[in-house]
Amino acid sequence: MDSPSRALKPAVCLLSGGLDSATALAVARREGFRCCALTFDYGQRHRAELQAAARVAASLGAAEHRIVTIDLRAFGGSALTAEIAVPKSGVSGGIPVTYVPARNTVFLSFALAWAEVLESSDIFIGVNAIDYSGYPDCRPEFIAAFESLANLATKAGVEGRTHLKIHTPLIQLSKREIIQLGAQFGVDFALTHSCYDPDAKGRPCGLCDSCRLRLKGFAQAGFADPLEYAESNTSENI
């Protein structure tokens, strides 16, 4: 007989190791899914997030955690996958150089493949369209388009056995609201990693877009960020 955890509906949860994806995983768990966490080693500059993802998956009781290796450095075109400097001057308008071409399209495609094997109808992704860096593949219209594609692309969808749903529980939340929700659902933010350009010790820089958005969110939420930053004057960078 299956154990109670095995009887839960499975969901594939994309998990980068950052606070957004950790909170999305916590939401999936709270909604009663058996969470199968999926992380990508894609040649990113900030590889410290891989260890963070493993810590978060264990902390939040993921039923399974897989790290899939792909190499987006083959194409480059981003400060995260090529020898391009990570901007440290603050969040600016337009699509920043830290955007990785087609990253969420690639990640969701892998998640879709695993979901079909698991006979799962649910994928969770922690994209956000409020306090974010302006990436086009974090927008609601992209998610809706991919969900439509997913239901045309799979055997399960064609046979009518399932209708895949891409859950984006954070998409209309501010970073402050995401942090408050994560805290409510038991996310240990000390285990997460958000920085695009950590130092040799893995400490966040405190200056890149991702660090600035994180610090601003914690300040607005009235919480202290538990991470130790390499840049000491983080209060001036939000």
Question: What is this entry, summarized?
Answer:
The protein has helices spanning 4-7, 19-30, 48-59, 103-118, 140-153, 155-158, 175-184, 209-221; strands spanning 10-14, 34-41, 64-69, 122-124, 165-167. It is α/β, with parallel strands linked by helices and 238 residues long. The chain has a single domain, classed as 3-Layer(aba) Sandwich (Rossmann fold), CATH 3.40.50.
Q: Structural class, judged by helices and strands?
A: alpha/beta
Principal-axis shape: globular
Beta fraction of the residues?
A: 5-15%
Low-confidence stretches: 1-5
How would a crystallographer describe the biggest sheet?
A: 5 strands, parallel
Average of the residue pLDDT scores: 91
CATH superfamily: HUPs
What would your notes on this structure say?
It is a single chain. By secondary structure, the protein is of the alpha/beta class. The chain has one domain: 3-Layer(aba) Sandwich (Rossmann fold). 36% of the residues lie in helices and 11% in strands. It contains 8 helices and 5 strands; from the N terminus they run αβαβαβαβααβαα. It has a 5-stranded parallel sheet, sandwiched between helices. Helix 2 packs across helix 7 and helix 7 crosses helix 8. The N terminus is likely disordered.
